[in-house]
Every structure is written in C-alpha cells, then in structure tokens.
C-alpha cells in the first residue's frame, strides 16, 4: 500500500491551513461543526414544511388535546417522503457551513477539500456509474440467493417525485462527503498518517447512522466499510467529485430505483420494487435495508480491494514527474565551440562553464 506513504496533493494543500490544532481538538471541532451544520439544515427543513404540516393538521381535524393522535400525526409527517425530500435539499445548508468553516476558520483552499477543477465532470460521471454498478451487484447477490423478491415496476404516477429525489440525493451525498472526507479526513491526514485519517473519519461516519431505524452491528460495520471505501477512492483519485457522485447514486439507486430502504429510511417512490424475504435478514439487512446485510459487505470488501489495486492519480502524477525531471546532460556543442574558440566564454552559462572546466581538468 504505497499510496499510504505518499500524501496526495489535496492533503498537501490541507497542510497549508492556518488553523490546524492537535488531533483531540480536531475530534471535538468535528462534532461541533457536524451538529451545528446538521441542526441548521434541520431547522430550515422544519420551517419550510411547517405551513404544509399545519394545513394537513387542520384538514384531518386532529384534536390538540389528544396527545396520542398528535404524536402519530407528527411522526407520520416527519417520516413522509415530502419531508425527506425537503431535508435532502436542505443538506446544501450543511455543506455550505462546513465549507465556510474550512475556508474562514481553518483558512484552507477549496482544492484542499477535494474540489479539483481538472476532470471534475468525468470524475463525477464515473462515480455515478460505479455507485450504480456496486449496489446492483448487491441486489443480484440477494436475488440469486432468494433473499430478495422482485415485485415489479412501481413508478406509475411518481416520475416527478423520483426525479426530485435524484436531485435531492445529489445534494445529500455531497454533504456527507464534504463533512467526513473533504473536511475531517483531509484535516487529520495533513498532520497524521493516512491510515489514521481513513479509519477515524470512517468510524465517525458509522456512528452518524447509529440512531437509524433497524440498525444492527453488521449495519454499522458496513457503514464503516463504506467510509473506508470512499476514503480510499477519494485519496486515490485526489478529488472529491467521484465520491460525491458515488455516494449520491448509491443512495438513490437503493431507495428510488430498486425500492430498498436507505439506511433504515423508506424513500417512498421508486422505479422498481424489491422486497426482502423473511428468512434472509443476514444477507438482505432486514429493516435497515441491504446496507445491513452480508451482500453489501461482500461488495464493499471487493470494492476496497479493487480500489487499493488501482494505481490512481497519485501514481499517474508521480510517473509524469519522473518523466519530466531528467538528470543534467551537458551540451557537447558548447565544449566543441570552446575548444575551437567559436564563442566567447562569458556567453556560456556559469553552470556549463563549470562543468566543462571539470571535464578538461580530468583530461
């Protein structure tokens, strides 16, 4: 694993941060930045949907004195597809706040967070394809083992909602990548070994899903593996664009393409509908969705292995540097001209004169 020894350019840029305290303080700051950004996004989502909630509340004629009825209504509303969609869009606020922290508190460049302009579009499109293929392989494993049942197409009358979720997940996937990989991982990696940065952000990424419905030990292990895979992919690609796309499409594919719960959350509208069988929880993840099962574990382990074998942009850049930097070769024409007195010595570069004098003294 040579890539763990050579830090990519985005990490090198992160080393130029004006504010970069020790690792303990960085962990504390991560929790502060994460909770503040998520709280802000949640408040905006609640305020944006409040008028609709009150409208539904009145239309259903719920008695405000009936605590049970009010609780059920509130729970249903805040777990509905409409509120989820608004919440996904509002993650843009969390993304913006994390970027503001990195730019104006740590005083880092956007480049150090992985926002590399070169090949951004190709990297993003490739990430989309990889995310879709990887989750599709997990679906195939479950279908082949009989732990997932296909119930047919489910998109009738919901195309607009599916497209909206597609856009929403583009924002949400980027938000989690910016906070975990673009911010925290590169900050830790700027002062500590890459392996520590990878494991630290991946474990925190797993803990972020600890309160999700249907969570299990295997589910958290898989989320940590997702974090490791995305971390390695980002460091190898030396850019955040690919992992943003991969994360977004991974979530959209399972929730709104195959109709599988996304980390325990039901997205509602989907292109197709697959239902987990009762006896296959170990593979299909049960209530948490496929991310809580061994099918995804297999896909992630293979994905990590393949990504580690990939040379990545680091190796490509290193190869270009080696080809560009060549040892100094004296130009024999200067020596010949000196010997035949064709040019004055003062017109010859100092370095060249020194080398030629050494050569003649040896003779």
Structure commentary:
Strands 1-2 form a two-stranded antiparallel ribbon. α4 runs parallel beside α6 and α5 (120-144) packs parallel to α9 (241-257). It is 66% helix and 3% strand. It has helices spanning 9-14, 23-59, 67-78, 81-104, 120-144, 159-189, 194-207, 217-237, 241-257, 281-284, 294-309, 312-324, 332-339, 350-362; strands at 148-153, 272-276. The protein has two domains: 2-310, no CATH class; 332-356, no CATH class. It is mainly α. Residues 317-328 have low confidence and may be disordered.
Provide a compact summary of the structure.
The chain has 363 residues and is mainly alpha-helical. The chain has helices spanning 9-14, 23-59, 67-78, 81-104, 120-144, 159-189, 194-207, 217-237, 241-257, 281-284, 294-309, 312-324, 332-339, 350-362; strands at 148-153, 272-276. The protein has two domains: 2-310, no CATH class; 332-356, no CATH class.
Give the N-to-C terminal Cα separation: 48 Å
Count of spatially separate domains: 2
What general outline do the C-alpha atoms trace? globular
Question: Mind telling me the C-alpha Rg?
Answer: 27 Å
* Helical/strand content category: mainly alpha
Low-confidence spans: 317-328
Which SSEs are present, and which pair or pack?
Elements: H1 9-14, H2 23-59, H3 67-78, H4 81-104, H5 120-144, E1 148-153, H6 159-189, H7 194-207, H8 217-237, H9 241-257, E2 272-276, H10 281-284, H11 294-309, H12 312-324, H13 332-339, H14 350-362
Helix pairs in contact: 2-4, 2-6, 4-6, 5-9, 5-11, 6-7, 6-9, 7-8, 8-9, 8-11
């Amino acid at each position: 694993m040579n890539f763990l020894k050579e830090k990519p350019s985005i990490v090198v840029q992160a080393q130029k941060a004006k504010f970069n305290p020790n690792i303990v303080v960085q962990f504390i700051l991560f929790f502060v930045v994460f909770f503040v950004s998520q709280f802000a996004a949640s408040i905006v989502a609640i305020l944006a949907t409040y008028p609709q909630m009150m409208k539904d509340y009145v239309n259903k004629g719920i008695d405000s004195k009936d605590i049970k009825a009010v609780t059920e209504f509130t729970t249903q509303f805040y777990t509905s597809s409409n509120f989820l969609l608004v919440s996904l869009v509002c993650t843009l606020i969390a993304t913006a706040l994390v970027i503001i922290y990195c730019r104006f508190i740590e005083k880092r460049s956007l480049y150090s967070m992985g926002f590399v302009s070169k090949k951004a579009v190709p990297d993003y499109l490739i990430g989309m394809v990889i995310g879709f293929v990887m989750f599709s392989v997990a679906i195939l494993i479950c279908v082949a083992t009989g732990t997932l049942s296909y119930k047919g197409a489910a998109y009738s009358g919901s195309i607009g909602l599916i497209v909206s979720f597609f856009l929403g997940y583009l924002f949400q996937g980027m938000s989690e990548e910016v906070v975990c990989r673009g911010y925290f991982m590169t900050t830790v990696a700027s002062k500590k070994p890459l392996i520590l940065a990878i494991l630290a952000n991946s474990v925190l990424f797993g803990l972020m899903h600890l309160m999700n419905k249907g969570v299990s030990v295997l589910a958290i292990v898989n989320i940590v593996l997702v974090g490791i895979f995305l971390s390695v992919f980002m460091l190898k690609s030396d850019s955040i664009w690919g992992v943003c796309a991969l994360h977004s499409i991974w979530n959209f594919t399972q929730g709104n393409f195959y109709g599988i719960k996304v980390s325990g959350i039901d997205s509602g509208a989907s292109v197709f509908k697959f239902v987990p069988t009762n006896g296959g929880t170990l593979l299909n993840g049960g209530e948490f969705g496929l991310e809580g099962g061994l099918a995804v574990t297999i896909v992630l382990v293979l994905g990590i292995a393949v990504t580690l074998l990939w040379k990545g942009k680091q190796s490509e850049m290193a190869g270009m540097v080696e080809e560009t930097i060549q040892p100094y070769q004296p130009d024999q024409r200067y020596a010949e001209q000196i010997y035949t007195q064709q040019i004055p010595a003062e017109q010859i570069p100092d370095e060249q004169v020194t080398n030629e004098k050494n050569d003649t003294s040896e003779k």
